[in-house]
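The material for today's practical consists of a large collection of protein records. There is nothing in a record beyond a sequence line and a structure line. As an example, a complete record with its sequence and its structure tokens follows:
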Amino acid sequence: MTTFIAVCSGKGGVGKTTVALNLASALTAYGRDVIIVDGNLSTANVGLHLGSPFVSTTIHDVLRGKTPITDSVYLHPSGIKVVPGSITLDDCRGIDVARLPESVRGLSDVSELVIIDSSASLDEECIQVMKASDQVLVVTQPDLPSVTDALKTIRLAQRLGRRVMGVILNRVADAYVDMDRANVEAILEHPVIAVIPEDRNVKRSLRIKHPVVFSHPGTPASVEFRRVAAELIGERYEERVEREERSGMFAYMLRRLGLK
């Protein structure tokens, strides 16, 4: 049976797409069959993050009834399977957002896990992404505006009858300035299941169009992404990446290019 997970934030700029992609990458590394769907229809970013902004069919074509969603799944070199969105403004016109749940559910029994990257606000796109999902992960940064919007996101998920799996606190940089974990949990009344540290390698990974979990496996953000991925699927997490990073050919290439 396929599990559908929506990754939502309620606010732009908190790193929602980065979280979705790296969870997909980490879960794939654990041997799970994962597809990530770009549900951010008005400002699709998944393809941009992965270096494939232009492909022959997108989720927009699926919503127009031009192609089944199973024919719009692409394999990224990192191992992630993805249904990208179109970055062309004209493709945003004339699509029926209400068809998203039915369309995404076309991946039932095709993959073990489907992660849906939502829009960056609590609009109709976000509502339809939640309707397409079984469970919701909420991404926020440790500041009051982001946490306030995360609370709205949780309330929306609850109204729609979707279970909130937990909160991922992203880009945590300064313990003296940022809201701490306990305060965030008190406001949101849900557990923070991961604290992703600010990590310059995330931007480096975006530059080379790979999830940081794949391109820089030994960095702090990657370690935390893998840990929470293991927790989500009930796997025991064991950190072995230091040896793998030193011996891996991909890491060697990155060092040669000056990207590590």
In short: DSSP finds twelve helices and eight strands in the chain. Residues 245-249 have pLDDT under 50 and may be disordered.
